[in-house]
Design a protein that fits this description.
Mean pLDDT: 85
Helix content: over 70%
Strand content: under 5%
Distance between the termini: 94 Å
Number of strands: 0
Radius of gyration: 27 Å
Low-confidence stretches: none
């Protein structure tokens, strides 16, 4: 058997298995197949695929060794899947068969995690493994339970709250179907459609190249949900555009990085973490989408304002236009909008499950994009077939990440470490909620460095979110909080994967690009604190309060963004910038934080608006005076 042939079959089998499960094929065929059996089989396919496609080290190893390891992996997980119902009955007895299979399964998954993600996640798992073995020796209040190695291995491999737990379940049953949906759209030419729409919509406005990057990356994020993938896909088109129009390489890379990172927050599809959040909170995915809308718009509004003001400050010219209008692009590519309409209609109007709604979207793409072209692109039968292995390869690393997160959750459960950590953080929160939020944010960013957002979200959902909820924070706000700060690790040095990926395209310093991305993406570090203390920003509360809070928050974001750039109709002095920052922070002040907080916030908003008005009037008056001075000699000669 050729390795490439086996790898192609494994990669194709991963999305095929998810799609068949989404349509509930076993139920229609009358087969009694448990969800955990499917998860075990899918994990075996992904792990074996890692051994075939990812080298053991930087140097090449013998092909037959990887092939044997892949075949052994398929045999182990295939046997677990086939006999899982019997193993459930034997679970209390820790049979020799179960011990042997569990040790092999865990070791194989750990090696696959090391190959795909490096040592960071493996190190985190190692720490919690040591805790589960020596937890009784840890000082209070973090003292945990201890277990034998055999008990730990069997629990991790067979318990539905460990390796085969919720994180893997969400990826296997929902996320893979959505990624397949996105791949079909890309193969149909939808990526080019989004970029063309963004270019045409920006017209001849100042900073149009950067605005194209923001709009295009936000739209593309709706079908990718991965910051790094977004950067390398759209960045090769938008970064050269920005540099040609006048933005520096560092600015272009930073703008692309923060625009692409926000794609994980942008409804309606968002990233894999949003599906995990819905599953963890046991709420419909549509509720997560609604809650994420205002924070995502605030994020992009801030970036949009800043790139516009940078263009005005630095005299950056509008990007050359293709001559195509938005109407003509929509007329040619309207069929790309239909799958999104079907997806949203199914989820919101009929409360269809997310995976089934995505499946309806896939069918719609095949029906429309196979008969209509966009700029020469059409979904062919070959493209449809290629989408299967490409999806399998795309989710390979994600599957290993959530499997690793499942191991951490399992170790926390068997050692009671999650309860001990939650109790310690709750005691801290009782003393100072602000300190708890600061520590939680730091942990999110620290754990997220070098790890994709999905992986760090799952870890933090088990480690930090329970403490935030116990401290009195709304569950949805707590989970959105850790999602945001986990996401910001993508643009936060020293390991900022999205910013560093953009720097490889620009050729500029990765660290400078990361620092610039932090500065431009400042709002993402502030908004999570706001919606924790002001749930109106995630659509929780009275409608009138939601509207008022949103309006003053938009004003506050605008004021601080102006201060960050230092330009509003003219370059601003440091004194004016400090005044705008104070007014903006006052506008952003959560109403519940201080007595009469709403009046303080409204007063700060009005002061900030008045300050901007005075700056604009002064600039206009100065421009008129200059004009009169220049025209006076001419009038005298007449």
């Amino acid at each position: 058997m050729k390795t490439s042939t086996l790898a192609l079959g494994l990669a194709s089998g991963i999305p095929l298995l998810s799609l068949l499960w989404a349509v509930q094929l076993p139920l229609y065929l009358g087969l009694e197949i448990d969800r955990l059996q499917m998860l075990s089989l899918l994990l075996g396919l992904a792990t074996a695929l890692v051994f075939l496609l990812v080298p053991h080290e930087q140097r090449r190893v013998e092909r037959w060794g990887n092939l044997m390891l892949a075949l052994l992996t398929l045999a182990v997980f295939g046997w677990i899947s086939l006999e899982y119902q019997r193993f459930q009955l034997d679970f209390p007895y820790l049979t020799v068969e179960m011990q042997g299979l569990s040790v092999l399964a865990v070791l194989m998954v750990l090696e696959a995690i090391r190959r795909t993600t490096g040592w960071i996640l493996l190190g985190v798992i190692g720490v919690f493994f040591l805790y589960s073995v020596f937890g009784d020796s840890v000082p209070a209040p973090l003292t945990g339970n201890t277990s034998t190695l055999n008990e730990i291995a069997v629990y991790l491999a067979f318990d539905p709250n460990a390796l085969l737990g919720t994180p893997l379940s969400v990826v296997a049953t929902i996320v893979i179907v959505f990624i397949f949906f996105g791949n079909l759209l890309v193969k149909s030419g939808c990526g080019e459609f989004f970029i063309d729409i963004a270019l045409a919509a920006m017209g001849k406005r100042r900073g149009s190249a950067a605005k194209t990057s923001i709009v295009g990356s936000a739209l593309f994020g709706a079908i990718s949900g991965s910051a790094v993938s977004n950067v390398v896909t759209t960045g090769v088109m938008t970064i050269p555009l920005m540099k040609r129009s006048g933005y520096s390489g560092v600015q272009a890379g930073a703008i692309e990085a923060i625009a692409s990172t926000g794609g994980q927050l942008m409804p309606p599809i968002m990233g894999a973490a949003a599906f995990l959040m819905a599953q963890s909170l046991e709420i419909p995915y549509s509720e997560v989408v609604i809650a994420a809308l205002i924070p995502a718009l605030l994020y992009y509004l801030s970036v949009f304002i800043q790139v516009d003001l940078i263009a005005a400050r630095d005299d950056i010219v509008p990007q050359e236009q293709s001559g195509r209008s938005v109407g003509s692009i929509l007329l040619e590519g309207w069929h790309f909008i239909v799958p999104f309409g079907v997806l949203l209609y199914a989820m919101f109007a009929h409360n269809v499950s997310a995976e089934l709604a995505a499946l309806y979207g896939c069918v719609t793409i095949v029906a429309t994009a196979s008969v209509r072209r966009y700029q020469g692109h059409r979904l062919t039968f070959k493209g449809l077939c290629d989408a299967f292995p490409q999806t399998g390869k795309a989710v390979m690393e994600l599957t290993m990440i959530v499997a690793g997160a499942g191991l951490v959750i399992g170790l926390l459960n068997i050692s009671s470490g999650g309860f001990a950590l939650t109790l310690a953080l709750v005691h801290l929160g009782e003393a100072n909620l602000g300190l708890l939020l600061m520590i939680s944010a730091g942990v999110c960013i620290l754990l997220g460095m070098g790890m994709p957002t999905t992986g760090v979200y799952v870890l933090l959902a088990a480690l930090v979110a329970p403490a935030l909820i116990e401290a009195g924070i709304e569950p949805l706000a707590a989970h959105m909080f850790i999602l945001y700060f986990g996401m910001m690790s993508m643009i936060t040095p020293p390991i900022a994967l999205a910013a560093f990926s953009a720097a490889t395209i620009t050729g500029d310093s990765p660290m400078r690009t990361g620092v610039e991305a932090m500065r431009l993406g400042w709002v993402a570090y502030v908004v999570p604190l706001l919606f924790v203390l002001s749930p109106e920003l995630i659509m929780q509360g009275e409608p009138l309060n939601i509207v008022l809070v949103c309006l003053v928050t938009v004003a506050g974001v605008h004021l601080v963004s102006v201060a960050m750039v230092g330009y509003f109709s003219r370059k601003l002095s440091w004194g004016l910038r400090a005044g705008l920052v104070l007014a903006g922070c006052g506008a952003l002040l959560p109403w519940a934080l201080l007595p009469q907080g709403e009046w303080l916030s409204l007063a700060a908003t009005l002061i900030g608006i008045l300050l901007l008005t005075l700056i604009a009037l002064h600039t206009r008056r100065h421009a008129k005076d200059v004009h009169h001075q220049l025209s006076a000699p001419v009038d005298g000669m007449k």
